[in-house]
Amino acid sequence: MPKSHYDSFEDTPSDIMSDLSSFIKKVTKELKIDKSGYRMITNIGNDGGQEVPHLHFHLIGGEKVGRLVRDKNDL
């Protein structure tokens, strides 16, 4: 985990993102969701729904997740 603070993906150096990617892989293996699948979400900026001003990821797994965006025919 990085010790420095970064507001968003754009502010985060590539080497830190690489470290975060490795950490997320480790976490998904520990949670045993690496094979069955999971959703990884990060919200960036006001229009992206970011409410907490630091880079963080949400991992959703352990069961089948639904579609994130509805099909236009569902509207």
From TrEMBL:
Where is motif Histidine triad motif found? 54-58
State the source organism's domain of life: Bacteria
Checking Gene3D superfamilies in the record gives: HIT-like
Q: Which residues form the active site?
A: H56 (tele-amp-histidine intermediate)
Q: Name one Pfam family in it.
A: HIT
Ranges for the HIT domain? 1-75
| GO terms assigned for molecular function | catalytic activity
What is the protein's name according to its record? HIT domain-containing protein
